């Protein structure tokens, strides 16, 4: 089943997450129509290779064009219309930058895998539960309801102001009519009655002015209360969700809803401001003793301007945090002289502001780094899927300034990766006579000068965003707080779900907890220090816990990803637990686990039964990325042979724990089907027998050490068949021991 087919079968709460990251940068319709073709391409490699990206982009356009021809033939007008639009959009956006579409598609596929992994996990962690709190959802609904009510109240007040204006015009007309009469006429009974009517109208005007001012005051008060309480909390919650999403957590949504609320409140405030201006206009035409307008209007206008200032100030947000396109799963880590992207949005979407707001970007003021590239760009509504007022900087590069050698001190790798920096943005809004200066900043970023610093830099980003809600604590690592182990384990699971498509289950997390704590106890409230996580070596090892875990992530990503995604790698299990699991299983049952003593290594252990009935266990020396680069791991499991004393080579691996036949588990991942005896004409150079690599281990009866895979012996099936026919088992054993078959 294709990945897209699996996505379509998800529950609605997960489908809503998928909907968040498909927009006109990469329309969902294209993803749906070209599902199998898209999934068969290596978009991640293309994201880092311009030539490959250009080829894939060219074929993407061809695929869309072919779909367009098909719908012309089927006379499907709606799809023809949509595909024409998408065809032009893709060509216009990415023809000059094909790597950008490769990055986008790669990110979408990765997020789909993360969501599929999250959907398959039975238990939510404490962080994810807090993000999906029902109280938060109820508050969101309340905010939207109150904003709608405020908008309606402001519109109703418009009608009151209009009625007041009409009433005053009638009063003005009658009053001027009387004023135009001769003095003798003014003493008539009719005029006296008219004067009484005018007095009554003036009383009504006074009452209506007070009523309108009171209604305006109530609208302003409602906006003030909403902004001070629920809307502020909503914005802070969104920023917290963004922090969590940056370190691999669930995708954060809700920004469009916030934009709608901010925009409606801004429209209501400007509407109230126009109402106050209208009252000022009415005041210039008519005033009287006790007139409420000159007393109340200035205070109300001052409050409206103050609220507009705060609303605009809070509406200027970093929609997408700084990230290098080459490392989309590692946002907030920036390498010198490598481009990164960052996107800003103004949550107040007013047409009058389109292309009128110019945003300037700078880096923190320590003068150690400068930004190269376009520093100033205008916000517009044309580049976003939903027409939001935004700007994206795509070609910024941090550059380290040269400083005197004496000022560098004893700066080490840990100091570099724990040094936080801030990227700041500023702009100015001029609208309806108001001038408002706006500022915002990214979450703290870590600068690196060498890709080898990336793992530790990413650890700093994880720890910061896990431990604090403060978006700008650049001195955080002067005294980093401890983290709750239960929350840290949840974040570690996110590293696997976001980076390699499958999170960790409770048993795997328990093993990591034991490794971090050194003992098997409850860990819900256990506090883990930053040093224990990233700086102190594991007991008896020359590396830290984080370096060990990062090496495993890299191994999975580059060499065993399909097997990991299928869930066939238990991975995180101790040697002791491994033996408990295997001891009662059928001989030949094996499991796969990551090495605890070697960085980036994976091994397998199988159970066997001796002639006397005793159970024994065998583990091979861990395979690292060097060996796995030579032979796929699934092929190693298929072809692995072991030579016992006085026996011929045989494959001891029969069942993947608990009882899955090996070929059923891994068959679809074999690079080719094995042949019992290859003929010279089967392939290879004419006149030669084709050779294959076969991993072989030798087990001695008195050996208690881990056994080596003998570095992948290049023995062809036909050679092996001939050996079995003409040589005794002892001779074969002697040949292997002397490494006669080594290349």
From TrEMBL:
SMART domains referenced in this protein's UniProt entry, alphabetically: STAT_int (SM00964)
Keywords: Acetylation, Activator, ADP-ribosylation, Coiled coil, Cytoplasm, DNA-binding, Isopeptide bond, Methylation, Nucleus, Phosphoprotein, SH2 domain, Transcription, Transcription regulation, Ubl conjugation
This protein's name: Signal transducer and activator of transcription
Top-level taxon in the UniProt lineage: Eukaryota
Record's subcellular location: Cytoplasm; Nucleus
Boundaries of every SH2 domain copy: 564-666
InterPro entries in the cross-refs: p53-like_TF_DNA-bd_sf, SH2, SH2_dom_sf, STAT, STAT4_CC, STAT4_DBD, STAT4_SH2, STAT_linker
Claim: Ubl conjugation is one of the keywords in the record: yes
Keyword Ligase: no
Cited CDD domains: SH2_STAT4, STAT4_CCD, STAT4_DBD
GO molecular function: DNA binding; DNA-binding transcription factor activity, RNA polymerase II-specific
GO cellular component, one term: cytoplasm
Provenance organism: Tachuris rubrigastra
Single GO biological process annotation from the record: cell surface receptor signaling pathway via JAK-STAT
Gene: Stat4
């Amino acid at each position: 089943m294709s990945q897209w087919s699996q996505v379509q079968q998800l529950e609605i709460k997960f489908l809503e997450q998928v909907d968040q990251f498909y927009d006109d940068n990469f329309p969902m319709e294209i993803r749906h129509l070209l599902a199998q073709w898209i999934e068969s391409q290596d978009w991640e490699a293309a994201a880092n290779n311009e030539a490959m990206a250009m080829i894939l982009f060219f074929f993407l356009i061809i695929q869309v064009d072919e779909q367009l021809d098909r719908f012309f033939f089927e006379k499907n007008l709606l799809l023809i219309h949509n595909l024409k639009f998408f065809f032009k959009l893709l060509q216009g956006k990415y023809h000059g930058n094909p790597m950008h579409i490769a990055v986008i598609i790669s990110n979408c596929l990765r997020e789909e895998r993360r969501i599929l992994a999250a959907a398959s996990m039975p238990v939510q962690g404490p962080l994810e539960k807090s993000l999906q709190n029902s109280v938060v959802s109820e508050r969101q609904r309340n905010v939207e309801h109150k904003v709608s009510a405020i908008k309606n109240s402001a519109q109703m007040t418009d009608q009151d102001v209009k009625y007041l204006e009409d009433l005053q015009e009638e009063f003005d007309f009658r009053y001027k009519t009387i004023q135009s009469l001769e003095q003798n006429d003014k003493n008539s009974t009719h005029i006296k009655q008219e004067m009484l009517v005018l007095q009554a109208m003036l009383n009504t005007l006074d009452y209506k002015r007070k009523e309108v001012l009171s209604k305006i005051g109530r609208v302003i008060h409602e906006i003030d209360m909403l902004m001070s309480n629920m809307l502020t909390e909503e914005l802070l919650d969104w920023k917290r969700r963004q922090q969590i999403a940056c370190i691999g957590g669930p995708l954060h949504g809700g920004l469009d809803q916030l934009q709608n609320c901010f925009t409606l409140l801004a429209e209501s405030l400007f509407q109230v401001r126009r109402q106050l201006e209208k009252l000022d206009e009415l005041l210039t035409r008519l005033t009287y003793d006790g007139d409420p307008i000159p007393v109340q209007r200035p205070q109300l206008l001052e409050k409206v301007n103050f609220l507009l200032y705060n609303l605009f100030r809070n509406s200027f947000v970093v929609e997408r945090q700084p990230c290098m396109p080459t490392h989309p799963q590692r946002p907030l880590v920036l390498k010198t002289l490598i481009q990164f992207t960052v996107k800003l949005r103004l949550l107040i979407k007013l047409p009058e502001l389109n292309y009128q707001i110019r945003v300037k970007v700078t880096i923190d003021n320590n003068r150690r780094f400068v930004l190269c590239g376009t520093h100033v760009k205008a916000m517009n509504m044309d580049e976003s899927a939903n027409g939001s007022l935004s700007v994206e900087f795509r070609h910024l590069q941090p550059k380290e300034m040269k400083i005197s050698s004496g000022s560098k001190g004893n700066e080490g790798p840990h100091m570099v990766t724990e040094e936080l920096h801030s990227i700041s943005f500023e702009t100015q809004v001029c609208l309806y006579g108001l001038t408002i200066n706006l500022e915002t900043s990214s979450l703290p970023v870590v600068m690196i000068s060498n890709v080898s610093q990336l793992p530790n830099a990413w650890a700093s980003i994880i720890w910061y965003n896990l431990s604090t809600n403060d978006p700008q604590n650049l001195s955080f690592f002067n005294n980093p707080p401890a983290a709750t182990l239960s929350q840290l384990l949840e974040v570690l699971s996110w590293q696997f779900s976001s980076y390699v498509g499958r999170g960790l289950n409770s048993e795997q997390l328990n093993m990591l907890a034991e490794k971090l704590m050194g003992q098997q106890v409850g860990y819900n409230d256990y506090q883990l220090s930053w040093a224990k996580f990233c700086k102190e070596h594991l007991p008896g090892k020359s590396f830290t816990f984080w370096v060990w875990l990062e090496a495993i992530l890299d191994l999975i990503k580059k060499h065993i990803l399909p097997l990991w995604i299928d869930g066939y790698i238990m991975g995180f299990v101790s040697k002791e637990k491994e033996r408990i699991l295997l001891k009662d299983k059928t001989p030949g049952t094996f499991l796969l686990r990551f090495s605890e003593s070697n960085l980036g290594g994976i091994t397998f252990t199988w159970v066997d039964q001796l002639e006397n009935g005793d159970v024994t266990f065998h583990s091979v020396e861990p395979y690292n990325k060097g060996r796995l680069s030579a032979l796929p791991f699934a092929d190693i499991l298929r072809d692995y042979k072991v030579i016992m004393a006085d026996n011929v080579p045989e494959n001891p691996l029969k069942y993947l724990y608990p009882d899955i036949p090996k070929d059923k588990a891994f068959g679809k991942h074999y690079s080719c089907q094995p042949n019992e005896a290859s003929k010279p004409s089967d392939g290879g150079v004419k006149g030669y027998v084709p050779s294959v690599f076969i991993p072989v281990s030798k087990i001695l009866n008195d050996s208690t050490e881990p056994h080596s895979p003998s570095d992948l012996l290049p023995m062809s099936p036909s050679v092996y068949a001939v050996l079995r026919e003409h040589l005794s088992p002892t001779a074969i054993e002697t040949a292997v021991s002397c490494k006669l078959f080594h290349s």
